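TICKET: design request
STATUS: open
ATTACHED STRUCTURE:
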């Protein structure tokens, strides 16, 4: 009986060692974000889907836009399929923080505050900020003139922060369409947004009685935010390589001209 007991104990020990080895190998294979994405075969992309021409739906209901095609290019470079999940602005980052999404592709501008939470890819677009007002309003001719005015923007956006830094009262909205509605209804004095977004809106709504009254001199950088952490390092490198590949091939320039009518993929 004792020999049988000892034999059983040896077998159990061997089994435990083998199991531990397998678990360790599995952990090593799945511990890196890039490895997990490749294993799943899917890159999960968070986007609003309501901000033309960055990310929006065409007449047939298809999700399209500059950011959509950039994200598709990143996924193709990595060798996986993109899965787009749409939501409101704040929820995009909450999902990124909780690892529900791998990246956010939504015209995200790099700021010092965001850089404390996320690592950013190399820029794939450069944009100036426009102050947009009703066509008959000449009261705002500088950013300083926003002091005491009411603006409309998604509250977590850099545009709302910029407006507030000049003394404006920023009202939170869900998307660009709601922003323009408030502006045209006279419920807000102005809105801050990307210059190219304004041009696209005017292309779609040529009779809209709005205009740009101020443009910033410097351009902000648009990049892909990635969760901080050692397990994201190789993934961020892959994203940067994908962007570099699209820039070198002329794809970024082509997409810029397609959606904006000008090349915003590089600094002037």
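STATUS: resolved
RESOLUTION: sequence designed for all positions
ATTACHED SEQUENCE:
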């Amino acid at each position: 009986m004792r020999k049988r007991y000892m034999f059983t104990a040896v077998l159990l020990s061997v089994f435990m060692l083998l199991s531990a080895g397998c678990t360790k190998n599995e952990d090593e294979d799945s511990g890196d974000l890039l490895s997990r994405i490749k294993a799943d075969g899917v890159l999960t992309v968070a986007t609003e889907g309501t901000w033309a021409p960055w990310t929006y739906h065409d007449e047939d209901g298809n999700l399209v836009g500059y950011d959509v095609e950039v994200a598709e290019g990143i996924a193709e470079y990595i060798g996986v399929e993109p899965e787009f999940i749409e939501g409101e602005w704040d929820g995009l980052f909450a999902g990124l923080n909780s690892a529900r999404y791998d990246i956010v592709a939504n015209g995200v501008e790099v700021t010092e505050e965001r850089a404390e939470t996320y690592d950013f890819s190399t820029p794939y677009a450069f944009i100036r900020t426009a102050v947009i007002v009703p066509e008959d309003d000449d009261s705002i001719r500088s950013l300083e003139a926003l002091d005491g005015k009411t603006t409309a923007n998604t509250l977590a956006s850099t545009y709302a922060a910029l407006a507030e830094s000049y003394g404006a009262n920023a009202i939170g909205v869900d998307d660009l369409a709601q922003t323009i509605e408030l502006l045209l209804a006279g419920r807000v004095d102005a809105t801050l947004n990307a210059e190219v977004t304004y041009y696209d809106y005017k292309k779609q709504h040529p009779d809209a009685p709005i205009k740009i009254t101020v443009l910033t001199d410097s351009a902000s950088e648009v990049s892909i935010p990635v969760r901080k952490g050692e397990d994201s390092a190789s993934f961020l490198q892959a994203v940067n390589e994908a962007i570099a590949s699209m820039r070198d091939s002329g794809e970024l320039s082509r997409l810029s001209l397609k959606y904006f009518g000008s090349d915003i993929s590089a600094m002037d």
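CLOSING REMARK: Residues 33-123+222-260 form a domain with the D-Maltodextrin-Binding Protein; domain 2 fold (CATH 3.40.190.10). The chain has two domains: 33-123+222-260, 129-217.
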